[in-house]
Write the C-alpha cells for this entry.
Amino acid sequence: MSFRREKYVPKGGPDGGKGGDGGDLLVEAVTDLAALRYFRHRKHFEAENGQRGLQKNKSGEAGKDLVLRVPMGTVVTDTATGETFELVGAGDRWLMANGGKGGQGNTHFKSSTNTTPRQFERGGLGQKRTLKLELQLLADVGLIGLPNAGKSSLLNALTRAKAPVANYPFTTLEPNLGVADGRVLADIPGLIEGAARGKGLGHAFLRHVRRTKLLVHCLSVEADDLERDYRIVRGELEAFDKRLVEKQELVVLTKVDLVSPKEVEAKLAILKKLAKDPVPSSIEKPELLKALMKRLMTEVSKLSQ
Ligand SMILES: Nc1nc2c(ncn2[C@@H]2O[C@H](COP(=O)(O)OP(=O)(O)O)[C@@H](O)[C@H]2O)c(=O)[nH]1
Ligand SMILES: [Mg+2]
C-alpha cells in the first residue's frame, strides 16, 4: 500500500504496484548422468520469491524460476499422490511447482467511490511438493562380453565415460554409462564376471538391460576360441532371461590392432558364421571407431521406430 507523495499535493492518490510472481520450479533432463549427485546433500529447493510491489505503481520483479537438472532417464515421483514424470531425453522439462502469484497493490482497488483505497492483496503462496528422484537407466545400447573383451575401453572410446579399464578380468558391479549422440551406452558387467562376486548382480543386471534396444557383444581377437566364447555369453544370457537372447545383437571383434589384417579377416570369418555382419574395432583406430559408431546409431534408430 502506498500513496503518492508530491510537492504541493496534500494527499496523493494510491500508487502501490503489484507484487511480482514467485518463480516456478522445474526439472530438466541433462546428459550428465551423474547429475543426481547434487541432490545427495541438499534436499530443499526453492525458486526465488517475487519482489514487493513498488511506489509509483511499479510492479515488483518476478522471482527467477529454479530449474533442477537431473540425468536423462530420471523418474520423478510425487510422494503424496504417486504421480510420476519421466524425463526420457535431454532437454525434457516438467513444471513441478508453481510459484505464488504476486498480490495486487492498492492502486488496483481505486475507484470513483474509493479514491484512497487501503486494501491490497497478499502474495499467494508457492506450491510445495515432496518429490522422489530416481534414475532408471534407459540404456539404448548394452555392451556385453567376457571379462577382458574390451567393453569398458570401447565405452570410454565412444563416449566421455571414464569406466575403469584393466588388463585382467576385472569388474565393478554397477554398469558404467556413457552418452554418445544422445544415446546411452552401458558397459554391463557380465554375468560371469559377477557370478564370483555373489548375489545382487542379477537384479542390477536385469534392471539395466530392461530397456536396452541393442546388445553389442564384444569378442577380443586375443580369444583362442571365438565360437566358444560367443556361446558362453549367449548361454549365460539365456539362462538368465530368455528375452535377452531375443534382443538385437551386434557382434564386435575388438582389439584388432593387436593382430595382422590377415588374422582379422580369419577371425571375422569365424564370427560371420555366428552372427550377421560382425564389425571389427579397436580403440587405437579412430576410423574403425567411427564406422562402429555409425553402425550402432543406424541399428538403434531402426529399433527405436
Ligand atoms: N590394444 C588394444 N587393447 C585394448 C583394446 N581395448 C581394450 N584393450 C585392453 O584390454 C584390456 C581389457 O579391457 P577392458 O576394457 O577393461 O575390458 P572389459 O573387461 O571387457 O571391460 C585392457 O588392458 C585394455 O587396455 C584395443 O582396442 N586395443
Ligand atoms: Mg570392464
User: Anything to note?
Assistant: Confidence is low (pLDDT under 50) at residues 196-200.
